[in-house]
Structure formats: C-alpha cells, structure tokens
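Q: My labmate handed me this sequence with no annotations at all. I'd like to see what the chain might look like in three dimensions before we decide whether it's worth expressing. Could you predict it?
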Amino acid sequence: MIPISGVNANAVQPMTTAEKVLGASKVQREEPTARQAKPMMDEYIPEEPQEPSGRYWMGRDENGQPKIYFDDPEQAADTPQPPEAAPDAKNPDTPEAEPPDTANEGAKGPERKKDEVWAGNTDKVDREIEKLKKKKEELEQRLRTETDEAKIKDLERQLAQVSRELTQKDNDTYRKRHSTFTQLS
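A: Here is what I predict for the chain of 185 residues:
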C-alpha cells in the first residue's frame, strides 16, 4: 500500500487542463428531433406449404365437436391439397381455414362423399386371442399331469411363449391395430 503523501500531485489535473493537454475533442450530443423512429415490430412472412409429414392434430368438425385430423403424405401425392387446408399455413388476412375432411380418407378424387360410414370389426382378433387362451389352458393342464423332467421343461417353455404372446395381443391397442374396417354406405 502506498501512502498518500507519496502520490504525485501533478498526476491529477482538472478536466479543462486534461482536455487541452491531450487535445481531446468535446463529445457532441445529438439534439432531439421532431421525427421519432418507428418502433421495431415483428413482420409476418408467409411460408410455402410444406409436404404432408403424416402428422396428427386436433381440430373441430362442422358441428364444433373435437376431431383428430391427419396430414396424409400418400394422399398428397395423389391429390394436391390447397394451401389453406394445411394447419400451419394460415393467412392472417383471411378467417381461419377449416382442416381437411379426413373422415373420408379412403376415397380418392371426385367420388368422395361426406356421408360415408365405416364399421370396425375385431372378430378375427378376438378369435385369435381365444385360441391362445385355450392353448394356454391345455398346456397348463398337460404340465400338471406330466412326470418326465425333459417334457416338463419343454411344456414350461411353450407355456411361457404362449403367455408372452397372449399379453401382447390381449389389449385394446392390438385390437384397434388389427381390426378390419368396412364401408357401410
């Protein structure tokens, strides 16, 4: 630490003297003008319609009920959609565009109808599950009566395999994926 008495007094100069010595120019301040700058704002730049990507989104049908819409990439190759139908390509100058009618995805071209009705059938899947349940019961019964160790291990292996297959298939998700749909009208 340096004592104050040891500080060079000539090092500190008044401001006016420092300006003269260094030849520094005075800072000029801009005078306020009558013209005010426009505030910076975001600008909407519309994007080109993108290719359908197989995306799902929620919307409302003509009755105001919630509905799930699907952006089908295969449909886009066959029939082009207008850009207003895409969910993200909304023009702010026009009212909100309605999503495309996806209830009639199966129909192609001009023969599309608004009143098509489809029915789902899970009978084939239900029969497959019942068959697996019967096979599991049969294997359990044979396992209880078997005395040979090699056959017991084989039956246990088969039973475990049938049980795994049954747990994979005996649920709503599997039924929905493997159900068959037919057009009623």
